[in-house]
Amino acid sequence: MELIQNLKWRYATKKFDPTQKISETDLEKIKEAISLSASSYGLQPYTVLIIENSELRKQLQPVSWGQSQIVDASYLVVFCNHTKVGAETIDSYLKLKADTQNLNIEDLEGYGDFMKSKIGELNDDAIKNWTARQTYIGLGNLLAACAELKIDACPMEGFEPDEYDTILGLSEKGLSASVIATIGYRSDEDITKDSKKVRKPISELFQVL
């Protein structure tokens, strides 16, 4: 199973080589892997920013605990969860589903009403928490795709989301920075690249009931 070997190869890269850049072809594969991620109801309630601009990343570095990955990696990927999910979001999804699967949109009305009733029960904080959790599924696919392509990645929660929202103008777009990742190629100077993975034993992590 190549996936296991790829996951053994990857690690949270602490120092990137700023001279090595990800090809456009590989970047498109990573984007497709993220787009194919599972999401609740299939709504994909998030937007993914892929930031290459060096000046913008310099602005974000101080509110990312000063970490060098922010400016040295090929790209900074910011997963932004939608802060509101309402009838318009659901109707847009149903139209896409009908068009993609060649269905009559009227036949999806019951499913749409079900989603609207369930999501309508959630308050604003619950909506934000729910949509933020969806971004981590996309992050997982990003990490797996990068590992297969032998592209290094570092998932990061060490940043100030409110500052990201301000710098990137996310709030007015109904978005909020949820989790970030840097992708590129490891530096030979990264002292963590040869460290053994530290994981709980399988027997301790899993219980079969």
From TrEMBL:
It comes from the Bacteria. InterPro entries: NfsB-like (IPR033878), Nitroreductase (IPR029479), Nitroreductase-like (IPR000415). This is NAD(P)H-dependent oxidoreductase. The lineage of its organism: Bacteria, Pseudomonadati, Bacteroidota, Flavobacteriia, Flavobacteriales. One of its GO terms (molecular function) is oxidoreductase activity. The keyword RNA-binding does not apply. Pfam families: Nitroreductase. Keywords: Flavoprotein, FMN, NADP, Oxidoreductase. Its cofactor is FMN. Residues 7-185 form the Nitroreductase domain. Belongs to the nitroreductase family.
